[in-house]
Specification:
Helix content: 25-40%
Strand content: 5-15%
Oligomer: single chain
Largest sheet: 7 strands, mixed
Number of helices: 9
Number of domains: 1
Radius of gyration: 24 Å
């Protein structure tokens, strides 16, 4: 979520009927909206949705010969479905995502088990750019509870919310640990300078410690570009994304020969707002040797919704990084 009055109609998102439970990943079609303030610079990604038609069982309607009484068919035994646990359901969602992104798994002679992509398939040059509000911290939900924002009162966090934040922190730390282990991670927010550190210290203290320990860079796009682009908040992240990718590229190309063909740079952008999608493509869409992979989360999530989304994201981060083409993914409730 952006902490500014950013134009929310930058991109119109239309999705096919298929819905995956518990924050499943779905590849939508992003259609540019007709707005002069925030033009788009990318080609819409085709939908990966499929609708399976169930085959009807054959029923014979032939009449029996005269004089013979047809035998009564034996009713089929009732099928009892076992309840599906939440963990198993999320695992099924992750399998559907992996299948849609990478195709069905290869068949083997014996039983198979899901495997994580090897480190050799992860690109060497990549960066993960994370939004903060409603992407790491459910700020909107905390504001409705009077715990964050200008109307917040200095009081203790209720135990029910605190328990949810503890579970959320586990998922945030899993995401950060995996992203740091694979490469570069940076947080880019439209909130003011210092907000991420302050809110993490209060609501996600373990995340606050991790950010300091691993020296993860936190950039306020507002503080950097509000003076020059006060009337264009949508452009703050466009310029900041471009700055950070240029900085990373300069560092990675130091010591390499000019004759060498650089490996494509994989940029993964995670955010809840359509302006994050716009900023990623507007900043990097025409950049050579750059692959853009955008993961759009649900807007204004509750603590539990964000926890489930990050769980699915962590389970599929390696797969997303390993793909050798541009990608737009959206979470669905």
């Amino acid at each position: 979520m952006e902490r500014s009055s950013c134009c929310a109609s930058v991109v119109t998102q239309t999705c096919e009927p298929l819905r995956l439970a518990h924050g499943g990943l779905l590849a939508p079609r992003f259609e540019p909206a007709s707005t002069a303030q925030c033009p788009t610079h990318y080609v819409p990604t085709p939908s990966l949705n499929t609708v399976a038609k169930a085959a009807r069982p054959f029923v014979s309607r032939a009449k029996p010969p005269r004089g013979l009484t047809p035998a009564k068919p034996t009713p089929p035994a009732p099928v009892v479905k076992a309840p599906v646990a939440a963990a198993a359901l999320l695992s099924q969602v992750a399998e559907k995502v992996t299948s849609k992104l990478c195709g069905p798994p290869p068949t083997t002679a014996g039983p198979t088990t899901p495997t994580t992509p090897s480190l050799s398939s992860i690109p060497k040059r990549h960066v993960v750019l994370l939004d903060w509000d409603d992407s790491i911290l459910p700020t909107s939900h905390l504001e409705t509870l009077g715990l964050a924002g200008e109307a917040a009162t200095p009081r203790e966090v209720p135990q029910t919310i605190l328990r949810g934040l503890v579970r959320l922190e586990v998922r945030v730390l899993a995401l950060l640990r995996r992203a740091v282990a694979l490469g570069d991670v940076r947080i880019v927010t439209n909130a003011g300078a210092g907000w991420c550190e302050q809110s993490a210290s209060r609501f996600l203290p373990g995340v606050s410690d991790f950010l300091r320990k691993h020296d993860i860079k936190i950039v306020s796009a507002r503080s950097r570009y509000e003076t020059q682009l006060a009337s264009e908040p949508c452009e703050w992240k466009v310029h900041t994304f471009r700055d950070e990718v240029n900085d990373l590229t300069c560092k990675s190309e130091q010591g390499t020969s000019s004759a060498e063909t650089p490996e494509p740079l994989h940029v993964v952008v995670v955010g809840d707002a359509l302006s994050d999608v716009y900023a990623a493509h507007a900043a990097l869409g025409d950049r050579p040797s750059t692959l853009i992979k955008v993961v759009k989360l649900l807007e204004t999530p509750t603590v539990g919704m964000l926890t489930n989304q990050l769980r699915v994201l962590v389970d599929n981060l390696d797969t997303i990084l390993g793909l050798r083409h541009n990608l737009d993914i959206a979470m669905r409730a």
